Amino acid sequence: MPTALITGITGQDGSYLADFLLGKGYNVVGMVRRTSTVNFHRVQHIQDKITLVPGDLGDQISLIHILEEYKPDEVYNLAAQSFVQTSWNQPVFTGDVTGLGVTRVLDAIRIVDPKIRFYQASSSEMFGKVVEVPQRETTPFYPRSPYGVAKVYGHWITINYRESYDLHATSGILFNHESPRRGLEFVTRKITYHVAQIKLGLINELSLGNLDARRDWGFAGDYVQAMWLMLQQEKPDDYVVATGETHSVEEFLTEAFGYVNLDWRDYVKQDPRFMRPAEVDLLVGDPSKAGRKLGWEPSVTFSELVKMMVKADLDMLRNGQVAM
Ligand code: NAP
Ligand code: GDD
Questions:
Q1: For the chain, N or C: smaller number of CB within 10 Å?
Q2: Full-prediction pTM beyond 0.85?
Q3: For residue range 265-304, what is the model confidence (pLDDT) as tens digits?
Q4: Is 126:141 a contact under the CB 8 Å cutoff?
């Protein structure tokens, strides 16, 4: 039975990847950082099937010890300070965890067992102020936030360790992917959660920032499959994972409010607090390499994704559950 280590297992992608790898018969080990309140809600349903071990991307020793003790065949580095807006408030922390943290994992692999296969969670945020449409593996980067800059570092150090030490180190350049497990601060889940609350008469307003931004939004459950496929290839490489479609925040609003027969214009207010110092206006990926080499393609459309998320939030609130 192969063993996989997932950093960031308590996050959206980590939880979907853990589900996926358990289904493939893996022994799943998840690294969790110490928090004052337990935040295992996304992996609660599989907690008796996985092993959670303490560690932190800021702490090299913990990474080395985990690799020595659990001897993973594959390491998926999904941990990061992943919220773009926060990266302006905490640029140094973001650089340390999201950027340098990648080097700490790679160097732990180099020291403990260079045969371990490594996946780095790179991001379409690296394209930022895009110089080409659609964006592909060869598109130059122009990051627009401390988060994007940190991800560019993580991407290149992955390639550097591949070339310097012959590690099976792969970088997945994933475009935005969402789900009912998405954090509440990201725009999609913020919208669907507020739509559900508005529909149930609990609130009557939603404050947002830039409604014109366009993203290539897919379903997280599809995207973790691409991560696994990348590590099953004989040679490490870089892959764009995207739907190839782009939609604005306004289109997301129309779809989400439309699902519950409401008009978003009656509820949405624009609030400068949610505007960014530098914006990424347009992202749309070209996933043809992933299709050709991995046989990967998305299975959930934009409209299905929005409905899935609104429905999940409505069900959650109707069942009296607390949003997390
Ligand atoms: P997420 O829900 O924010 O999860 C981030 C995870 O990282 C959480 O488990 C978090 O732990 C953990 N973490 C944060 N700082 C850490 C540290 N210092 N040490 C150890 N763990 C730490 O993010 P996601 O949406 O699942 O994304 C997964 C990865 O893919 C991230 O690297 C993200 O930047 C990247 N990415 C995401 C997307 C997307 O659209 N979702 C697209 C491209 C790339 P806590 O639960 O304790 O906070
Ligand atoms: N979060 C948020 N909140 N975003 C808003 C809001 C709001 O109230 N109003 C408008 N937006 C706009 C943002 O300005 C941005 O252009 C867009 O909605 C998407 O914002 P987020 O959902 O926060 O995601 P992101 O695109 O910045 O970053 C996500 O995707 C990246 C991949 O491109 C994160 O998951 C990153 O970790 C990931 O790398």
A1: N
A2: yes
A3: 999 999 999 999 999 999 999 999 999 999 999 999 999 9
A4: yes
